[in-house]
Design goal:
The protein has 162 residues and is mostly beta strands. It has one domain. The chain has one helix and nine strands, in the order αβββββββββ. The strands form three sheets. It has a four-stranded antiparallel β-sheet with strand order 3-2-7-6. It has a three-stranded antiparallel β-sheet with strand order 1-5-4, with no helix packed on it. It has a two-stranded antiparallel ribbon with strand order 8-9. The protein is globular. The termini are close together. The N terminus and C terminus are likely disordered.
């Protein structure tokens, strides 16, 4: 699994209210193959996922799980540790996971995010059972800003996460 810096917990609480989809407990899986080519090859730590809530885009929890070219999962720890196979970049076989409950309504107009992301990709989620629709927004941050605070800590890193 790729390591993605944690989001600010106070901001995540703003996205806790259920969105437009009814199947709240279901995970949503987006493979790299489903994304435009300009998102492939980017460092996973530069990705952020947002939902539209109360007129603003708020960060939501997500994870990027890496797979090898053969389709095996990359594990950073444990008995099956194969982290040497990690590229740290989003590839076509990798998986972005988040919860359906975190999807929000479609954002209208200009998408305003802090830090002026390099790219923003709206992702529409369609429930095949009741035809409900929700949206999330995948953003690519511009480069590495050099500082990453760990939640609940006054310690900052000046190097990108591995």
């Amino acid at each position: 699994m790729a390591s993605v810096p944690a989001q600010d917990p106070s901001l995540l609480e703003a996205a806790a209210a259920p969105g437009p989809l009814r199947r709240l407990a279901d995970p949503v899986l987006v493979t790299g193959e489903m994304l435009p080519e300009d998102f492939l090859g980017v460092e996973s730590h530069r990705l952020r996922l947002y939902s539209h809530r109360d007129g603003a885009l708020v960060p939501i929890r997500f994870q990027v799980d890496e797979r090898t070219e053969e389709g095996d999962w990359v594990f950073a720890h444990g008995k099956r540790n194969n982290r040497y196979r990690s590229t740290g970049r989003l590839d076509g076989q990798d998986v972005i996971l988040f919860m359906a409950r975190d999807a929000g309504p479609e954002a209208a107009g200009t998408l305003d995010l802090p830090g002026e992301p390099e790219r923003i990709l709206p992702i529409e989620i369609a429930d095949p059972v009741d035809r409900g629709r929700g949206w999330v927004y995948l953003a690519l941050r511009r480069g590495f800003n050099g500082w990453c605070l760990r939640p609940g800590s006054a310690t900052a890193r000046t190097t990108p996460p591995a």
